[in-house]
Amino acid sequence: MNLSRIKDIKIIALSIVGFAIIQLLLTENIIGSFWELNIILIGINIIMSVSLNLINGYTGQFSLGHAGFMAVGAYVSAILTVKFQMPFLVGLIGGAAGAGTLGFLIGLPTLRLQGDYLAIATLGLGEIIRICILNISYVGGASGFMGIPRYTNFAWTFFIVLFSIFFIKNFVNSSHGRACIAIRENEIAAEAMGVDTTKYKVMAFTIGAAFAGVAGGLFAHYFYIAHPASFTFMASFNYLTMVVMGGLGSITGSIVGAVILTFISAALASWPEFRMIIYSLALILLMFYRPQGLFGNIELTDLKIFKRFKGGRK
Amino acid sequence: MGTMLKVEDINVYYGAIHAIKGISLEVNEGEIVTLIGANGAGKSTILRTISGLLKPKIGKIEFEGQNIAGIAAQRIVKSGISQVPEGRRIFANMTVMENLDLGAYVRSDKAGIQEDLKMVFARFPRLEERKTQEAGTLSGGEQQMLAMGRALMSRPRLLLLDEPSMGLAPLLIKEIFSIIQDINKTGTTVLLVEQNANMALSIANRAYVLETGRITLAGAAKDLAASEAVRKAYLGG
């Protein structure tokens, strides 16, 4: 067995211990329902930021419509579980498939655009998705899709988060991932090296969208409702903020960004007027002192202290 | 010595701008052929069209008897053409090693890749010294070497070089050009685009002179270097 496999197993073991502790605290009611909600929200946001990082951070395609894919996942999974009485897992997979398919269809034409143009196009597409949903009475239109059962709990969230992180980490470290990073570094050179740039851009976009769909499914099945107002472009910006704060091109960074920003919002929930001030101050300070994000493009497992434990990288 | 690359009457447009107006050229196996000309003559455009980054509106490009005009860049790389792009375009945030790995992106024969890696390191010892260093921290000359090494990693039969002398000191230019000659001697055919006509003509077998999208002169490099018209226009009298 090679070192990186052993490293993966150690990390999984460590996270399962962490899971057991939090689960115990939850069942013993030491963590109240307010923080339980926020822990699950953190999980959902981690899926969103890590999957967005694959598109924005690793492949370098500036997408601003991530909440749109989350909406598709939320609604598709809710339709499956509510209207067709399917089990939750089928709903989540359906949500991922729906969002992924849409990501693929949207990605093919839009990923020919670059930089600002792509950002504008994806921003627009996210809004188009939301406004379409708003006008479909089958899913509740403007009043939202109500009566969704609460299937999402800490265990579901935790293991799906773990799966997402490992899936995207392995993708990034594979030859597909290297192709994506090459596109970010220099698209023309990547093409000249024989990287099929369109294929990999669309692939990253589709995978990112599919995971956003899963996150949407978890979201809808926790809050009993899927509402178009949860998926505005402000939500997309919010996920982008997490990615940029953690560092474009660092999975650890995206996780930390999601945790910190969700935690700040939750901790300051009783002082809504201070919340936005502190939130924006934190971002301004970050841009001044660490423009590459908290982690830059470094992973936690690259840090020296971890190398000692795990016997180094590669 | 058969014809390796045959470009026939290609026309390339950037939107409405007619950049290449019906150019034909040939590269024979084992040759160094150079395209010289001033800024904006269309030299790089031709290379980018051959390597598939641009598509010709009209015209044929044949490589080893197969039409490659308009097909995707990755298939052209697989068929044996590799480009060193203008301005080097290395992957700055990746290490030297990762850059070279990406050069072999279209290949899957691990043993062959290892062999070529050794060959590249033998040709550019400085790259081996710096293999774990980030490519963006290399000097200009080293970056050019990396770009060439990276292109060689796909084991091309035809190497397209776009302005390898750009922004380099005269001594380094000499070094780079002698390396190009070495690469050619070991069996790789070279198509070289250069503004430094003097250097290019000194190592090439044949040359084409390009002016605003048309070929105005063609012939053996020696003859062109001696010709009055070329000397006046490109070699400083």
From TrEMBL, chain A:
This protein's GO CC annotations: plasma membrane
UniProt entry tagged with the keyword Transcription regulation: no
Localization, UniProt: Cell membrane
Membrane-spanning intervals of the chain: 12-31, 37-55, 62-82, 88-108, 117-139, 151-168, 202-225, 237-264, 276-292
Pfam families for this protein: BPD_transp_2
Membrane association type: Multi-pass membrane protein
GO molecular function: branched-chain amino acid transmembrane transporter activity
UniProt xrefs under CDD domains: TM_PBP1_LivM_like
Keyword tRNA-binding among UniProt keywords: no
Key words of the record: Cell membrane, Membrane, Transmembrane, Transmembrane helix
InterPro entries: ABC_transp_permease, LivM-like
Domain of life of the organism encoding this protein: Bacteria
Annotated protein name in UniProt: Branched-chain amino acid transport system permease protein
Organism (species): Propionispira arboris
UniProtKB/TrEMBL annotation, chain B:
Family annotation (InterPro entries): AAA+_ATPase, ABC_branched_ATPase_LivF/BraG, ABC_transporter-like_ATP-bd, ABC_transporter-like_CS, BCAA_Transport_ATP-bd_LivF, P-loop_NTPase
Domain ABC transporter: 5-237
SUPFAM superfamilies xref list: P-loop containing nucleoside triphosphate hydrolases (SSF52540)
Alphabetized PANTHER family for the sequence: HIGH-AFFINITY BRANCHED-CHAIN AMINO ACID TRANSPORT ATP-BINDING PROTEIN LIVF
Gene Ontology annotations of biological process type: L-amino acid transport
Record's signal peptide: none
Any GO MF annotation of the entry: ATP hydrolysis activity
Protein name: Branched-chain amino acid transport system ATP-binding protein
Pfam families linked: ABC_tran
Coiled-coil regions, chain positions: none
Record family assignment: Belongs to the ABC transporter superfamily.
Keywords: Amino-acid transport, ATP-binding, Nucleotide-binding, Transport
Gene3D superfamilies: P-loop containing nucleotide triphosphate hydrolases
Entry annotated with the keyword Nucleotide-binding: yes
